């Protein structure tokens, strides 16, 4: 997730559409799969699947590179021609090209860097402005790539416009992965099928039913559910010592999904504690914390979030 500078509401429909196209474009170049996304007026979320590093042929390298320039200038066309010639000739120059291109692929940080830089250049030119567009480095959460963790994160992302009060049903919000899948967009359907593949969802209709059931809970057949306010959620949890259904919790702003660092089963999270500790230079290993607030189906995170989980 990444946010605009000062949280300014800069993105209208045109900007959201350009950003949507760039997310898909850069994902193709980087060789990552967009499982779902949501673009709001001052931030966007994207859930990515990063495949294991498989060999990439020179032909595929050039195809991906061309994806970044759907309407190339004469200079860009000439550059592509030179790169292709050097790759065909082999040798040191070809190796340099391969290393430079491959270094930008299969990596979340490189993906986000490319999307944010490309969109910033377009936005500033289109709006006669200059300077930074984004507030800070993006926030990321490593999510277990199957089952409840992946499905819950996908639903949380798709419910952004519902939490913001823009729609009652995410299928009515143009700029999220679920709405694109409902509308029949091929890449969005592939992403949703991937999310629900371990439930036997090989077709988009079964994936949509499963996703909708998670979003709406027992009232999945109804068009919408009232938004659970933060105040009411805290009252149920703190004062009434109760638990909220997952479909209701997902309508709250839950900091685990942006600040939890690693999300999945306790076993999955514990498997990354050593790497997380080394990466941050911590003296002591982090604890594996069960997610609080209701029945999350055994989900755990590294960041326990001592402050309020909701809001």
3D structure, described in words:
With 311 residues, this protein is an alpha+beta fold. Among the domains are: 58-102, no CATH class; 256-301, no CATH class. Helices cover 49% and strands 8% of the residues. It has 15 helices and seven strands. It has helices at 13-30, 58-67, 74-89, 92-102, 108-126, 147-158, 160-163, 177-183, 186-195, 204-216, 230-239, 246-249, 256-259, 266-270, 273-280; strands at 2-3, 33-39, 43-49, 142-143, 262-264, 289-290, 300-301. A four-stranded mixed beta sheet has the order 4-5-7-6. Strands 1-3-2 form a three-stranded antiparallel beta sheet, with helices on both faces. α1 runs antiparallel to α2 (58-67) and α8 crosses α9 (186-195). The chain is globular, with a radius of gyration of 21 Å.
What order do the helices and strands come in, and which of them pair?
Elements: E1 2-3, H1 13-30, E2 33-39, E3 43-49, H2 58-67, H3 74-89, H4 92-102, H5 108-126, E4 142-143, H6 147-158, H7 160-163, H8 177-183, H9 186-195, H10 204-216, H11 230-239, H12 246-249, H13 256-259, E5 262-264, H14 266-270, H15 273-280, E6 289-290, E7 300-301
Helix pairs in contact: 1-2, 1-5, 2-3, 3-4, 8-9, 9-10
Summarize the structure.
With 311 residues, this protein is α+β, with helices and mostly antiparallel strands.
The neighbouring-strand order within the major sheet is 4-5-7-6
Strand runs, count: 7
Distance separating the two termini: 16 Å
Largest sheet: 4 strands, mixed
Roughly what is the average pLDDT, rounded to an integer? 88
Helix percent reads: 40-55%
The amount of beta strand, in percent, is 5-15%
């Amino acid at each position: 997730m990444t946010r605009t500078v000062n949280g300014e509401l800069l993105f209208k429909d045109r900007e959201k559409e350009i950003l949507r196209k760039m997310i898909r474009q850069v994902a193709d170049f980087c060789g990552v799969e967009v499982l779902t996304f949501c673009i709001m007026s001052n931030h966007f979320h994207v859930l990515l699947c990063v495949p294991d590093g498989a060999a990439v042929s020179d032909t595929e390298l050039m195809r991906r590179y061309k994806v970044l320039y759907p309407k190339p200038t004469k200079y860009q066309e000439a550059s592509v021609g030179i790169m292709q010639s050097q790759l065909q000739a082999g040798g040191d120059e070809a190796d340099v090209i391969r290393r430079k291109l491959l270094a930008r692929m299969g990596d979340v940080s490189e993906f986000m860097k490319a999307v944010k830089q490309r969109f910033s250049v377009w936005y500033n030119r289109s709006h006669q402005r200059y300077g930074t567009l984004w507030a800070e480095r993006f926030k990321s959460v490593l999510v277990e790539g199957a089952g409840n963790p992946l499905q819950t994160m996908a639903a949380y992302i798709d419910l952004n416009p519902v939490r913001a009060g823009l729609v009652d049903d995410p299928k009515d919000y143009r700029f999220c992965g679920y709405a694109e899948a409902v509308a029949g967009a091929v890449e969005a359907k592939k992403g949703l099928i991937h999310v629900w593949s371990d439930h036997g969802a090989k077709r988009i209709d079964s994936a949509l039913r499963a996703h909708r059931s998670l979003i709406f809970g027992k009232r999945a057949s109804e068009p919408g559910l009232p938004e659970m306010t933060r105040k009411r959620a805290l009252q149920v949890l703190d004062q009434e010592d109760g638990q909220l259904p997952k479909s209701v919790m997902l309508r709250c702003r839950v900091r685990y999904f942006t600040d939890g660092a690693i999300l999945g089963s306790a076993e999955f999270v514990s498997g990354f504690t050593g790497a997380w500790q080394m990466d941050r230079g911590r003296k002591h290993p982090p604890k594996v914390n069960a997610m609080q607030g209701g029945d999350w189906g055994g989900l755990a995170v590294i960041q326990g979030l001592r402050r309020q989980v909701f809001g």
